[in-house]
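User: Fold this one for me? It's DNA-3-methyladenine glycosylase I.
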Amino acid sequence: MRDYHWLHEYCLNRFGSAAALEVQLPQPKSADELRAITDDRYLSLISLRIFRAGLKHSLVDAKWPAFEEALFGFDPHKVVLMGDEHLERLMYDERLIRHLAKLRSVPRNARFVLDVAQEKGSFGTLIADWSVSDIVGLWRYLARHGNQLGGLSAPRLLRMVGKAPSSPPTTWWPRSRPRASSTRCRAARRIWLRCRTPSTAGRPTAAGRCANCR
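Assistant: Here's what I get for DNA-3-methyladenine glycosylase I.
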């Protein structure tokens, strides 16, 4: 996986200068501004992020006013009451993106927003008070308690709402599983499942076999 410094250099080369790159970046909000965002707006942004995943953003954004109308302005107290029959009716609304799993995430995340609001006073309070030095912890919290907020959805959501770390995180995700080269034996290609000694896993010998298969 590429590190942050590689990504920064790549973006500088693409936009030509640090100033041009800065214009493209979202502006972080203060803690007071994050608290001032209402729960229905947070639920709307959560849902927008989920529907954008895997789709062209401009397509989703163009349809979003229809979502606001069909989903009661994302009022979590109303959305949380939407049952399966209501969601199935929405599947016939041609104004919407008719993806049942994503539609089901809306009332589930409405419950998440309401649970946080009951504990913290508002969803914005959770976002505002979470230390920016532990931004990865907030990603994991959202992924664990929200619906369809795993992977890159949580960090991209926080970028959308204006929550930004004080400095780039040094650790993003666990390292990918090691891949064996074509010179290794068949067992070595699956060595990450079998080997109990990762430091020597899958190293081919002169005979083309790993240490576990000699």
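One thing worth pointing out: The longest helix spans residues 100-120.
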